[in-house]
Amino acid sequence: MAHTKAGGSTNNGRDSVSKRLGVKRYGGQIVKTGNILVRQRGEKMIAGDGTRMGKDNTIYAVRDGVVSFMKKKIVHFTGHFKSKQVISVK
Length: 90
Prior knowledge:
CATH 2.40.50.100, 8 strands, 4-stranded mixed beta sheet, 0% helix
């Protein structure tokens, strides 16, 4: 008789629910006040003109307008320059 023995149990049989992080509104898109532009963990992107950062580092619009992305060199804590993306609404 063909038979398979018991496989036993494993510690790997689970996964976490995705957090849906990332850019929600892209450059050139029209947004309204309160629209979420980016959900992120840590300050990967920085809030510019017309945007603010929430307590969970979410960047949202504080005025109606058009989204724009640009790179800016920021002084890192080591004293070196680090390139960061700045999101603004104009």
